[in-house]
Specification:
alpha+beta; 22 strands; conserved putative lor/sdh protein from methanococcus maripaludis s2 fold; 4 helices; elongated; 34% strand; Elongation Factor Tu (Ef-tu), domain 3
């Protein structure tokens, strides 16, 4: 006789459903709790550069390019304007101090000189004539005073006789008073004549002084015009090489116009262009060096030019010792410019990554070497070989230092 078996709850179908559900729940839990959701990119390890972070001495320097220039360059500016009538020396020639380079002509300057010279000659004649006239007048005044003194002596003799006779009551009072008035009039007239001659003499001296001062000023003007005419002959102010003279016969030159320059070849300096990024770290007194003919030659910055051109500032560097033999004007050479003292630091080799990240983050390789993960860092100073690491990296870690251009925004690189 058949028995009714009890129905089982865990059938094979239910077991399969439960197992499947647990698998889905576990997968979801793993995906939410432990799975790596960061964006990834597969890269070929042999096509990237991996560098090791290290500890060492950081030499704070940059490599710049210096161009050899004369220690002193003298500009030739036209002191007087005119047109070129003769050109005696071509650019590139060696010249001596005082050697004639150009001859100019300026008719207006010559006319002004002649007018000034004529005025000076007229004043000389006026001064001579005035002195002659005053000398004649002085003789006339002396003669007048001499005649007046003679008349005064006669009047005094007559007055003395009349006074004596009047006291003796030998003549009437009217004769005495007439003689007295004649004498007193001549005495007063002599006083007036003396004052008049004194005034005329002082006035004459003033006239002569004024003429002399006017003549002196005019003669100075003549000398200045003469000097200006002399400047129409352009001479070399110093000995050296006439590196340029862009003037031809017939050219018209304005006053103050640059017509060339002379290089003093008794010494050289280096004109160096420095990236304006280092502007606040460049100042006079910084040292540098460069290698030439197998020897190291020290340099020092003496002048920093304030203008920035095409993202660079110019500085002048002089040789701390004698300039090496064989240097030529215009020759260029790399220079190691020191920006600070050497110090211990965590070092990261320089690479193309910096242009893509600005030094704010890098890809750091994990310990297994299978992947590289993005990490934020802070970099400090830089020299041609290393960056100074301030935070984010430890010595011994490995970093991708080649370009990140093809990595996009992925946070993990898998090899």
């Amino acid at each position: 006789m058949d028995r009714v078996l009890p129905k089982r709850f865990w059938t094979s179908q239910r077991i399969a459903i439960a197992v499947g559900g647990l698998a889905v729940v576990g997968l979801l839990a793993y995906n939410f709790l432990w799975a790596d959701h960061r964006s990834k990119l597969n890269v070929e390890k042999d096509k990237i550069t991996i560098s090791t972070v290290s500890t060492g001495t950081f030499d704070d320097f940059i490599v710049v390019t210096g161009v050899v220039q004369p220690l002193k360059t003298i500009r030739l500016d036209a002191i007087a304007g005119g047109y070129v009538t003769e050109k005696l020396v071509e650019g590139g020639a060696m010249v001596k101090q005082g050697q004639v380079l150009l001859r100019l002509e300026n008719q207006n300057l010559r006319l002004n000189f002649l007018q000034s010279e004529t005025e000076a000659n007229r004043l000389v004649n006026d001064l001579q004539n005035t002195r002659q006239r005053l000398r004649v007048e002085r003789y006339t005044l002396q003669k007048t005073l001499s005649d007046l003194d003679f008349q005064l002596d006669k009047a005094k003799d007559a007055f003395d006789r009349q006074s004596k006779l009047y006291k003796d009551k030998a003549i009437p009072e009217q004769d005495y008073l007439t003689a007295k008035r004649d004498y007193d009039r001549l005495v007063e007239q002599r006083k007036i004549e003396v004052e008049s001659q004194k005034y005329q003499q002082e006035n004459s001296l003033i006239q002569i002084k004024q003429l002399e001062e006017t003549l002196a000023r005019t003669q100075k003007n003549v000398a200045l015009w003469q000097q200006t005419l002399n400047n129409l002959v352009v001479k070399a102010p110093v000995s050296g090489q006439l590196s340029s003279i862009d003037i031809e016969v017939g050219s018209n030159i304005n006053q103050g116009q640059n017509i060339g320059q002379i290089d003093d070849l008794n010494g050289f300096k280096m004109r160096v262009g420095v990236d304006e990024h280092y502007n606040n770290r460049i100042f006079a007194g910084l040292n540098g060096s460069f290698e030439y003919n197998g020897a190291n030659h020290p340099l020092q910055i003496t002048r920093v030019y304030p203008e920035s051109r095409n993202g660079r500032i110019d500085v002048d560097m002089i040789f701390m010792k004698a300039a090496p033999e064989g240097l030529k004007r215009g020759q260029s050479t790399p220079i190691q410019l020191e920006l600070g003292k050497a110090s211990k630091a965590t070092l990261l080799p320089v690479g193309g990554f910096f242009s893509d990240t600005g030094g704010n983050w890098v890809y750091v390789v994990d310990k297994l070497g299978n992947r590289a993960v993005k990490r934020n860092i802070t970099l400090g100073r830089k020299n041609p070989e290393y960056f100074e690491v301030l935070t984010g990296l430890e010595p011994g870690e490995q970093v991708i230092t080649s370009s990140y251009e093809n990595f996009g925004d992925n946070e993990v690189l898998e090899f």
